[in-house]
Design brief:
The protein is of the alpha+beta class and about 270 residues long. Helices cover about 35% and strands about 25% of the residues. Strands 2-3-4-1-5-10-7-6 form an eight-stranded mixed sheet, sandwiched between helices. It is globular and about 50 Å long. The chain starts with a helix and ends with a helix. Bound molecules: nickel (II) ion (NI). The site of nickel (II) ion has 6 residues, from strand 1 and strand 5.
Length: about 270
Protein backbone atom coordinates (compact mmCIF):
# COMPACT_ATOMS: atom_id res chain seq x y z
CA UNK A 1 0.00 0.00 0.00
CA UNK A 2 1.41 3.37 -1.00
CA UNK A 3 2.08 6.09 1.54
CA UNK A 4 -0.58 8.39 0.09
CA UNK A 5 -3.20 5.66 0.22
CA UNK A 6 -2.30 4.86 3.82
CA UNK A 7 -2.56 8.56 4.67
CA UNK A 8 -5.94 8.90 2.99
CA UNK A 9 -7.35 5.86 4.80
CA UNK A 10 -5.96 7.17 8.07
CA UNK A 11 -7.61 10.57 7.58
CA UNK A 12 -10.91 8.89 6.78
CA UNK A 13 -10.68 6.61 9.83
CA UNK A 14 -9.92 9.53 12.16
CA UNK A 15 -12.78 11.56 10.72
CA UNK A 16 -15.08 8.58 11.17
CA UNK A 17 -14.17 7.73 14.76
CA UNK A 18 -14.40 11.38 15.78
CA UNK A 19 -18.16 11.08 15.18
CA UNK A 20 -18.44 7.32 15.81
CA UNK A 21 -16.11 6.50 18.72
CA UNK A 22 -17.67 3.05 19.22
CA UNK A 23 -15.82 1.93 16.07
CA UNK A 24 -12.45 2.64 17.69
CA UNK A 25 -13.49 0.71 20.82
CA UNK A 26 -14.55 -2.30 18.74
CA UNK A 27 -11.37 -2.16 16.66
CA UNK A 28 -9.33 -2.18 19.87
CA UNK A 29 -11.28 -5.12 21.31
CA UNK A 30 -10.68 -7.15 18.16
CA UNK A 31 -7.04 -6.13 17.98
CA UNK A 32 -6.53 -7.18 21.60
CA UNK A 33 -7.73 -10.66 20.62
CA UNK A 34 -4.90 -10.74 18.12
CA UNK A 35 -7.01 -9.95 15.08
CA UNK A 36 -5.56 -7.99 12.16
CA UNK A 37 -8.43 -6.11 10.59
CA UNK A 38 -9.01 -5.57 6.90
CA UNK A 39 -11.86 -3.39 5.73
CA UNK A 40 -14.42 -4.60 3.21
CA UNK A 41 -15.66 -1.14 2.39
CA UNK A 42 -15.86 2.47 3.47
CA UNK A 43 -19.25 4.12 2.95
CA UNK A 44 -19.48 7.85 2.30
CA UNK A 45 -22.64 9.91 2.16
CA UNK A 46 -23.34 13.25 0.56
CA UNK A 47 -25.96 15.33 -1.22
CA UNK A 48 -26.48 15.11 -4.97
CA UNK A 49 -25.35 18.72 -5.46
CA UNK A 50 -22.58 19.89 -7.81
CA UNK A 51 -19.23 20.21 -6.07
CA UNK A 52 -20.00 17.71 -3.31
CA UNK A 53 -21.82 15.01 -5.31
CA UNK A 54 -20.66 11.40 -5.72
CA UNK A 55 -18.16 12.23 -8.48
CA UNK A 56 -16.49 14.94 -6.37
CA UNK A 57 -16.02 12.62 -3.41
CA UNK A 58 -14.71 9.87 -5.69
CA UNK A 59 -11.92 11.97 -7.19
CA UNK A 60 -9.29 11.50 -4.46
CA UNK A 61 -9.86 7.73 -4.62
CA UNK A 62 -9.67 7.61 -8.40
CA UNK A 63 -6.40 9.54 -8.26
CA UNK A 64 -4.99 6.74 -6.11
CA UNK A 65 -6.11 3.87 -8.31
CA UNK A 66 -9.66 3.01 -7.25
CA UNK A 67 -11.81 2.20 -10.28
CA UNK A 68 -15.53 2.90 -10.67
CA UNK A 69 -17.80 -0.13 -10.60
CA UNK A 70 -21.58 -0.63 -10.39
CA UNK A 71 -24.16 2.09 -9.82
CA UNK A 72 -27.19 1.55 -7.62
CA UNK A 73 -30.49 3.31 -7.14
CA UNK A 74 -32.43 3.03 -3.90
CA UNK A 75 -35.70 4.69 -4.78
CA UNK A 76 -37.38 4.26 -1.40
CA UNK A 77 -34.55 6.12 0.29
CA UNK A 78 -34.10 8.66 -2.56
CA UNK A 79 -30.49 7.60 -2.81
CA UNK A 80 -28.08 6.98 -5.70
CA UNK A 81 -24.84 5.11 -5.09
CA UNK A 82 -21.78 3.78 -6.82
CA UNK A 83 -18.82 1.79 -5.62
CA UNK A 84 -15.11 1.88 -6.41
CA UNK A 85 -12.67 -0.98 -6.20
CA UNK A 86 -8.87 -1.05 -6.12
CA UNK A 87 -6.65 -3.57 -7.91
CA UNK A 88 -4.99 -4.19 -4.55
CA UNK A 89 -7.38 -6.69 -2.92
CA UNK A 90 -6.25 -5.64 0.53
CA UNK A 91 -7.76 -2.19 0.07
CA UNK A 92 -11.39 -1.52 0.93
CA UNK A 93 -14.03 -0.84 -1.65
CA UNK A 94 -15.43 2.69 -1.48
CA UNK A 95 -19.22 2.99 -1.59
CA UNK A 96 -20.35 6.56 -2.17
CA UNK A 97 -24.00 7.49 -2.02
CA UNK A 98 -25.84 10.76 -2.50
CA UNK A 99 -29.31 11.96 -1.66
CA UNK A 100 -31.51 12.80 -4.66
CA UNK A 101 -32.48 16.25 -3.32
CA UNK A 102 -35.06 16.86 -6.06
CA UNK A 103 -37.17 14.00 -4.69
CA UNK A 104 -37.58 15.52 -1.23
CA UNK A 105 -40.38 17.81 -0.05
CA UNK A 106 -40.21 21.51 -1.00
CA UNK A 107 -39.42 22.37 2.65
CA UNK A 108 -36.49 19.94 2.82
CA UNK A 109 -35.23 21.15 -0.55
CA UNK A 110 -35.31 24.74 0.72
CA UNK A 111 -33.28 23.88 3.84
CA UNK A 112 -30.66 21.93 1.89
CA UNK A 113 -30.64 24.58 -0.84
CA UNK A 114 -29.74 27.21 1.76
CA UNK A 115 -26.97 25.00 3.17
CA UNK A 116 -25.28 24.51 -0.17
CA UNK A 117 -25.84 28.05 -1.52
CA UNK A 118 -23.47 29.69 -1.71
CA UNK A 119 -21.74 26.40 -2.19
CA UNK A 120 -18.87 25.69 0.14
CA UNK A 121 -15.55 25.31 -1.62
CA UNK A 122 -15.61 22.05 -3.56
CA UNK A 123 -12.84 19.56 -3.08
CA UNK A 124 -11.02 20.82 -6.17
CA UNK A 125 -10.94 24.44 -5.07
CA UNK A 126 -9.98 23.67 -1.52
CA UNK A 127 -7.28 21.18 -2.35
CA UNK A 128 -8.52 18.97 0.47
CA UNK A 129 -11.17 16.30 0.41
CA UNK A 130 -14.70 17.55 1.13
CA UNK A 131 -15.13 15.19 4.06
CA UNK A 132 -12.56 17.11 6.08
CA UNK A 133 -15.11 19.59 7.33
CA UNK A 134 -18.81 20.44 7.41
CA UNK A 135 -19.03 23.19 4.82
CA UNK A 136 -22.10 24.92 6.28
CA UNK A 137 -23.75 26.08 9.46
CA UNK A 138 -27.12 24.66 10.42
CA UNK A 139 -29.61 25.31 13.21
CA UNK A 140 -30.80 22.43 15.36
CA UNK A 141 -34.44 22.88 14.30
CA UNK A 142 -33.43 22.67 10.63
CA UNK A 143 -31.58 19.44 11.33
CA UNK A 144 -34.57 18.00 13.14
CA UNK A 145 -36.95 18.86 10.32
CA UNK A 146 -34.63 17.22 7.77
CA UNK A 147 -34.11 14.18 9.99
CA UNK A 148 -37.86 13.73 10.41
CA UNK A 149 -38.27 13.51 6.65
CA UNK A 150 -35.06 11.62 5.86
CA UNK A 151 -32.57 10.42 8.48
CA UNK A 152 -30.03 10.34 5.64
CA UNK A 153 -30.67 14.04 4.89
CA UNK A 154 -30.29 14.83 8.59
CA UNK A 155 -27.04 12.91 8.91
CA UNK A 156 -25.35 14.74 6.01
CA UNK A 157 -26.66 18.11 7.28
CA UNK A 158 -25.23 17.51 10.75
CA UNK A 159 -21.92 15.84 9.91
CA UNK A 160 -21.18 17.14 6.42
CA UNK A 161 -20.36 14.97 3.41
CA UNK A 162 -18.09 12.16 4.50
CA UNK A 163 -17.63 8.74 6.01
CA UNK A 164 -20.76 7.22 7.44
CA UNK A 165 -19.22 3.86 8.27
CA UNK A 166 -16.29 1.52 7.90
CA UNK A 167 -16.99 -2.17 7.41
CA UNK A 168 -14.67 -4.92 8.58
CA UNK A 169 -14.08 -7.85 6.24
CA UNK A 170 -14.94 -10.87 8.36
CA UNK A 171 -12.73 -13.07 6.18
CA UNK A 172 -9.74 -11.19 7.63
CA UNK A 173 -10.61 -12.35 11.16
CA UNK A 174 -9.16 -15.61 12.45
CA UNK A 175 -10.95 -16.17 15.78
CA UNK A 176 -14.59 -15.87 14.66
CA UNK A 177 -16.09 -18.68 12.61
CA UNK A 178 -19.06 -16.60 11.44
CA UNK A 179 -21.10 -13.44 11.93
CA UNK A 180 -23.19 -15.09 14.66
CA UNK A 181 -20.07 -15.47 16.77
CA UNK A 182 -19.16 -11.84 16.16
CA UNK A 183 -22.67 -10.69 17.07
CA UNK A 184 -22.44 -12.58 20.35
CA UNK A 185 -19.02 -11.07 21.05
CA UNK A 186 -20.23 -7.52 20.46
CA UNK A 187 -23.33 -7.97 22.61
CA UNK A 188 -21.21 -9.50 25.37
CA UNK A 189 -19.10 -6.34 25.32
CA UNK A 190 -22.11 -4.07 25.67
CA UNK A 191 -22.64 -2.97 22.07
CA UNK A 192 -26.14 -2.76 20.66
CA UNK A 193 -26.75 -4.28 17.25
CA UNK A 194 -29.17 -3.10 14.63
CA UNK A 195 -31.44 -6.10 14.91
CA UNK A 196 -34.52 -4.82 13.08
CA UNK A 197 -35.47 -7.79 10.92
CA UNK A 198 -32.66 -9.88 12.44
CA UNK A 199 -29.10 -8.89 13.30
CA UNK A 200 -27.62 -10.47 10.19
CA UNK A 201 -28.80 -8.89 6.93
CA UNK A 202 -28.38 -10.75 3.70
CA UNK A 203 -27.52 -14.40 3.26
CA UNK A 204 -25.26 -16.80 1.48
CA UNK A 205 -27.79 -16.65 -1.39
CA UNK A 206 -27.30 -12.88 -1.80
CA UNK A 207 -23.50 -13.44 -1.49
CA UNK A 208 -23.22 -10.81 1.21
CA UNK A 209 -24.03 -10.98 4.91
CA UNK A 210 -23.69 -7.91 7.10
CA UNK A 211 -23.99 -7.02 10.72
CA UNK A 212 -24.06 -3.49 12.08
CA UNK A 213 -24.11 -1.79 15.43
CA UNK A 214 -26.63 0.86 16.33
CA UNK A 215 -25.53 4.45 15.99
CA UNK A 216 -24.63 6.09 19.30
CA UNK A 217 -25.75 9.62 20.07
CA UNK A 218 -22.87 12.12 19.98
CA UNK A 219 -22.70 15.84 20.74
CA UNK A 220 -22.84 17.99 17.62
CA UNK A 221 -22.43 21.78 17.57
CA UNK A 222 -25.25 23.48 15.68
CA UNK A 223 -25.24 27.23 15.05
CA UNK A 224 -27.66 27.83 17.94
CA UNK A 225 -27.02 24.97 20.36
CA UNK A 226 -25.18 21.72 20.93
CA UNK A 227 -27.28 18.58 20.85
CA UNK A 228 -26.75 14.84 21.03
CA UNK A 229 -27.81 13.13 17.84
CA UNK A 230 -27.21 9.70 16.22
CA UNK A 231 -23.87 9.36 14.43
CA UNK A 232 -22.70 6.47 12.22
CA UNK A 233 -22.51 2.76 12.91
CA UNK A 234 -19.78 0.10 12.58
CA UNK A 235 -20.32 -2.74 10.17
CA UNK A 236 -18.94 -6.24 9.60
CA UNK A 237 -19.41 -8.04 6.30
CA UNK A 238 -18.91 -11.56 5.04
CA UNK A 239 -18.84 -12.20 1.31
CA UNK A 240 -19.47 -15.41 -0.61
CA UNK A 241 -18.34 -16.70 -3.96
CA UNK A 242 -20.47 -16.54 -7.08
CA UNK A 243 -21.15 -19.77 -9.01
CA UNK A 244 -18.19 -18.76 -11.21
CA UNK A 245 -15.92 -19.08 -8.19
CA UNK A 246 -15.29 -15.34 -8.04
CA UNK A 247 -15.90 -13.50 -4.81
CA UNK A 248 -18.97 -11.23 -4.93
CA UNK A 249 -17.92 -7.60 -4.54
CA UNK A 250 -21.23 -5.78 -5.09
CA UNK A 251 -23.68 -4.34 -2.59
CA UNK A 252 -27.17 -5.12 -3.77
CA UNK A 253 -29.43 -6.31 -2.33
CA UNK A 254 -27.77 -6.20 1.08
CA UNK A 255 -26.84 -2.51 0.90
CA UNK A 256 -30.44 -1.62 0.27
CA UNK A 257 -31.36 -3.17 3.60
CA UNK A 258 -28.38 -1.51 5.16
CA UNK A 259 -29.76 1.94 4.38
CA UNK A 260 -33.11 0.97 5.83
CA UNK A 261 -31.61 -0.59 8.89
CA UNK A 262 -29.51 2.48 9.62
CA UNK A 263 -32.61 4.60 9.47
CA UNK A 264 -34.52 2.21 11.70
CA UNK A 265 -31.69 2.19 14.19
CA UNK A 266 -31.59 5.97 14.30
CA UNK A 267 -35.29 6.58 14.61
CA UNK A 268 -35.62 4.42 17.69
NI1 LIG B 1 -21.87 -0.61 4.41
Amino acid sequence: MGVRIAELLDVLWRDYVSSTPQAERIRQLLTQRGEILCNDHIALRTYGVAGIAIEALARPFEALGWRARDRYRFRDQHVRARYWQHDDDELPKVLISELAIEELSPDAQAVIGALVDPPGPGCDERGAPPWAWRPWRIRHAEYRALFAESPYAGWVAAFGPGVHHFTVDVASLSTFPDLEALAAFLIEHGFRLDDAGGAIKGSRATRLEQLSTRADPVAVAFSDTTARIPSGHYELARRYRLPSGELFHGFVPASERSFESTDAGISR
